[in-house]
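As described in the Methods, two query proteins were run sequentially through the folding procedure within a single session, without resetting any intermediate state between them. The first query and its resulting structure tokens are shown here.
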Amino acid sequence: MSQHERHVRVAVIGSGFGGLGAAIRLRREGVTDFVVLERADSVGGTWRDNSYPGCACDVPSHLYSFSFAPNPDWPRTFSGQRHIRAYLERVADTFGLRPHLRLGHEVRRMRWDNDELRWEIETGRGDLTADVVVCAAGPLSDPKIPDIPGLAAFEEQGGRVFHSARWDHGYDLTGKRVAVIGTGASAIQIIPAIQPEVRRLTLFQRTPAWVMPRMDRPITAAERWLHRKVPATATARRGLLWGIRELQVSAFTKRPNELGLVENIAKANMARAVRDPELRAKLTPDYRIGCKRILLSSEYYPALARPNVDVVAAGLTEIRGNRLIGADGSEAEVDAIVFGTGFHVTDMPIAERVTGADGITLAESWKDGMESLRGATAAGFPNWMTIIGPNTGLGNSSMILMIESQLNYLADYIRHLDRLGPGTTLAARPSAVAAWNRRVQDRMKRTVWNVGGCDSWYLDANGRNTTIWPGTTAEFRRATRAVDLSEYEVVRVRDRGSRTEEALA
């Protein structure tokens, strides 16, 4: 990193939806002294990393895009990975973000300097300092692969192993015996895509998923023409999609028993494709729909019913040579293993690289569970903000809505710092963080994610839901419209080497 870039006003970490959105909002606020640090060689975040066969979004295209950057030319109602990644590349170009991008700059360490009141950032391509850090690394960034006895030996003997988010496109699955581990959103897209070409496919299913039919179709040329010529029609379409999902929230958060009707739709989706009662029994969940992420597919069940597919209704416990052993004693000989086992969501590795004002890492601060103020700022980490932070996830709608709300909060945060003057920091009060999280967790108690009878990736090691927002996106937007300065301590540098603190009532 060149000498003139050693200090910036803002450093943004990550270039997915959150990072690019933050960069756009900073420019709109008149902040041009910023960089976007990205460890990969291109933008796109999870939509760059997840290029597995069949990868697509389970949120309608017109809702899964920035409100300030509509795309009238989405090809399908639920667009695929290739088109979403291309959209993000266009966004980077349209909003002039390329000069701010620092590709190949993986952040190795960040440390708050209590004397200079700024962040010291070490990357793989040089060091820099920043007044403010916006962490948009995202919870779906670092794949999680379980520690299975015999896995290393399987690879040493020539077996191929990869995670869905690190797909090995150089390995031809044609005619191979393949095991897929997991039944999450990635697995149910991968299985129908690869089933016709593999010799045998074995699914190791620890817990079955609720799968609703995917109402996907091509968007017609006439629709796309109308959205280009009359943008209000695309806005109306987006608004309708948003409104329907807002109306669904109360069932998830207040009345989980009302979701029984939705379960019947999912069961009918299964029954149409799976005639074998034994296989249907394996695939039928024993928990309330919505407790785990509801999945969308009209091809998953038909693929599982094909003669070259086996479903092991147990987790993978051991590998002996090229034989995979399930918890129920089932065995399968395979040539390749694909892990669809999710990500480090509640234990994000980047938290280990961030050291705050008290000399402890973010991971240490969050050892009993992630907590932040309004999903954005953490106690002990001044001038630090997360995009898609704790308890900002959604179970039924578009994360872009939550990201845009957090961008509003970021913009007001920057405005406050500007008004307070140079050498000023905002530090979230521990009492404010604790109060916010008490309210969130109190609302969480009756939600389907807590009482639905499942163990999901929404829960941390202590069984606490630190991932999902227990309300509507409109509620979250109101909660993050503006920064409440009473929730922060203001720290000012009067001169080099000294500082004063101002506590705002």
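Immediately afterward, the second query was submitted; its sequence and tokens are:
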Amino acid sequence: MQWLRMASILLLWASGCRLAMASDAGNGWMFADLERTGWPDALSSQTGIDTASRAEVLMFGRALLASEALDEAGLEQRLGVPHVQLKSIRQVRDGLWDRLLSTYRNASVDCDGQPFCPRVRSVAELRQLAAAFTGDISPAHALWASKSQGVHEQVLNEQLRVAVLRP
């Protein structure tokens, strides 16, 4: 399970870096800035990895919830596509929520007393937790949360765009 949690964090981070670099090609400070404003705590222990995993899941959940509030026209504008297929979008969103729940549960084993640790039993509970999540437990975490939200929105937009273009 440890490798799965670490892989999830690395995948989210790598996707964010790739998108940041692709969206601002030729501007080296963007990548450097992303490096300096990443997760503020060390990832040198299982507890640290699990805490970061839970926070990333909740932040991605916030981005996913925000996308669900958009109607068809709003999605078309946000994704830059002429037409969206809502069925494909719903399927991708449902799959993302299932994976987020699985990742959050795996990272929540024995986390009593750790940050971002409320237990969840269902996607509905995870959605509620993500809606209320701010990540603001310290100034460093608040900075991470503000930067992370943009990265997760970009990653989500790419996933939804693929759902529209290749249903």
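Helices lie at 2-23, 28-36, 46-68, 72-79, 86-107, 123-132, 139-165. We note this only descriptively and draw no conclusion about the first query from it.
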